[in-house]
Amino acid sequence: MHGSAPRACSLSLEKASGKLGGLSRLAGRFFPSKLLAGPAKSRNRLFPPLVVFWAFLSQVLTRNASCAAALASVQAWAAAQRKPVPANGTSAYCQARTRLGIDTLRAVFKAVGEWIERRCEGSLPLLAGRVVRVIDGTTISMPDSPENRKKWPCAGNQKKGCGFPLVKLVAVFCLRTGRMIKFAFNDWRQSEYALARELLGWINKNEVVLADRGFCSWGLVALYVRKGVDVVMRLHHLRKDKAGTSAWKKPQRTNAWGKTLWRELPAQLAVRIIEFNVNIKGFRTRHIALCTTLMDERLYPDEALIELYMRRWQVELYLRDIKVTLGLDVVRCQSPAMVEKEIWMQAIAYNMVRALMLEAAMTHGQTLERISFKGTLGKMREWAAWMNQSGERASKTMLKELLLAIAGDPVPLRPHRSEPRAVKRRPKSYQLLTKPRHEMAVSESRRKK
């Protein structure tokens, strides 16, 4: 059959070929390209680190697209660039992903974060000139491969062969920009406040940490105070302190703390307790008690700290953007090493979207919280597919138009919106897996006989 291909097919090929190059033009501004240069004396590969990184990123930005889809993008890009086209089969691409060093991903993550910090320097204070960091945790599921299960076991209440390995992740964010500053993860048995201790080095003196009651432990608060960091946390449910000032005495040391470090912590902590009622429709919690080390009531009045704590919900939205919009709730890799790389790539992708949101907000005077993460991600994917089809000057013009499109589509103002946590679409009425799948298959076949 002769003649040109259908227009829809040709457009699809154009978009696929421009995806990798378009992403690099759009997001490559956020970090030095030399970070992806690879070894100086490496052989000429079909999948060099630069190509693998952008292909991997395109998977993450498309909610964990398959390796076959990433390979198709690389093939289309290579054909458009008149380079050797990789053969079908994802084995070579998957092997190239394993060669992408974790140190490289850490360096890119750090560079993107520094790009955001430079752009908003001087505009971060939220509380009497103090920078506020917010911390929270979540869990991540992954394929039930033997390697993953050995590294990160399934939850304790799961029957053998019926669950999935879980990772518990705790991250610290910038409350002003939404940037993920650092994260730590371990298996599900690790406590959140123990993971938060690993993030202490990325919180600076004179900053304020905002967190929920799961992090309100004496040892963690004492570590923050020792570093010159103040906290605003919801009071742990086991503490019954009344409103006013309290002195928390040092408890008995647990096995999780070393003797030397425990001795360096103060004998007691001076804290201030604030109680208030929440009369907002849809809020499950009606009475909240806050614990803070900000003792100056004149400089930090109760109303300011209550207002700050009500903004803590932003971190839940940050985690939702990563888990639901980007797809980190279930990672796809089959080995622990690749699971770790996938988590780092998700963090890089998240900060890149945040960087684009910040750039659009600052360029066009829009409030950052009015810019949609999901909307920015969708525009980023679609515009990147076409940015490589034009020259350098045209790409700069497209970037300006993209920033205008992002800033010009603000999220509606919906303060205290009440939406019940309910699902309208009914799930399929399949039976639940109560034993390993191969055992259930045998049982089913015997029952039918």
What features would you describe in this structure?
The protein has 449 residues and is an alpha+beta fold. It has a domain at 215-304. It is 44% helix and 13% strand. The protein contains 15 helices and 8 strands. The chain has helices spanning 7-27, 49-61, 67-80, 91-99, 102-119, 146-151, 192-198, 218-227, 259-264, 302-310, 313-325, 336-364, 373-387, 392-407, 437-448; strands at residues 132-141, 166-174, 180-187, 208-211, 230-234, 244-249, 268-277, 287-292. An 8-stranded mixed β-sheet has the order 3-2-1-4-5-8-7-6, with helices on both faces. Strand 4, helix 8 (218-227) and strand 5 form a beta-alpha-beta unit. Helix 1 (7-27) packs across helix 3, helix 12 crosses helix 14 and helix 13 (373-387) packs antiparallel against helix 14 (392-407). Residues 1-17 have low confidence and may be disordered.
